[in-house]
Amino acid sequence: MLFSFRMLATRALSLVGKRAISTSICVRGGHGVAKVDDYALPAYFDRRENPLPDVQFVTELSAEQRSLKEKEKGSWATLSNEEKIALYRISFKQSFAEMNEGTKEWKSVIAGMFFFIGMTGLVVLWQRKFVYGPVPSTFESEWKEKEVQRMLDMRINPVEGFSAKWDYENKEWKK
Amino acid sequence: MTHASVFRGSHKCTTMRSNSRPCGQTTPLASRCYSHAKVETDEEFDARWVTYFSKPDIDAWELKKGMNTLIGYDLVPEPKILDSALRACRRLNDLASAIRILEAVKDKSGPHKDIYPYLIQELQPTLIELGISTPEDLGMDKL
Description:
The complex is a heterodimer of chains A (175) and B (143). Chain A is mainly α. Chain A has a domain at 138-174. Chain A is 46% helix and 5% strand. Chain A is built from 7 helices and 4 strands, in the order H-H-E-E-H-H-H-H-H-E-E. Chain A has a two-stranded antiparallel sheet. In chain A, strand 3 (166-167) and strand 4 form a beta hairpin. In chain A, 5% of the residues are buried. By secondary structure, chain B is mainly alpha-helical. The relative contact order of chain B is 0.11. The two termini of chain B are 37 Å apart. In chain B, helix 3 (79-91) packs antiparallel against helix 4. The A-B interface holds A 48-54, 72-73, 75-79, 81, 84-85, 87-88, 90-92, 95-98, 100-101 and B 63-64, 67-68, 71-72, 90, 93-97, 99-101, 103-104, 106-107, 130-133, 135, 137-143. Chain B: This is Cytochrome c oxidase subunit 5A, mitochondrial. Chain B: It is found in: Mitochondrion inner membrane.
């Protein structure tokens, strides 16, 4: 009875894929063993600080790759460069040069920055036109002239500041 | 636990310990309150790792574990350690790992571009003997 259950399970799962059978529920003595999900198994990853990952990159070898693996058991000097590279690619996905390669992401980042700064600029311009009222009358040039004259008459900062720059004799700004 | 890079830390000496100078009080500069743990010398560190990789029946897991741990340290391994590791790869019939190890130590050297050529120079006899090509020979250092 145990056998028939297992057969059914594997037959059903054979449609899903080879990997699934190894993760199928194993029923023994009436108790189940916990299902092993893919994420719980050792995974392959390329990282500088972990040069030799827990598993090979290529798990299922073709016939050609298997024969190459057999050849690997002999002297390595007999292997051609292509064969050595092929062996490397079986075990590893990316070389160090490839994994350390920079992306072109920075271009997107700068582009995004400019875009949003531009958008903000448009919003500011629109606000100036449609949201804010007129500036106070004290900004008009006529007013400002009277204001400056008043400050000079009051001798504002006569030693080193404002009035110090005015030539009272010739009634002009000092050169 | 102990590393080739020697680091010194002070620890509070209690009066219970047989230490002539209790810390926390004004001690002259010449005497420091260092830890009494024995610091491993560089030679001891190297020897330990050479022995680790020299195990005749080393298995693949031990090679990976050893290599990953070694790369985790703040140092570039000595040529003799790498020699031992490459021979372990040979015993395990793993050429890919041997090439990977060379890539890893080059990467580990960081901005010090003169370390890797030195290592290759020292390892040249072993590389020729075992028939290991460097990543440069295979063009794997380029993209």
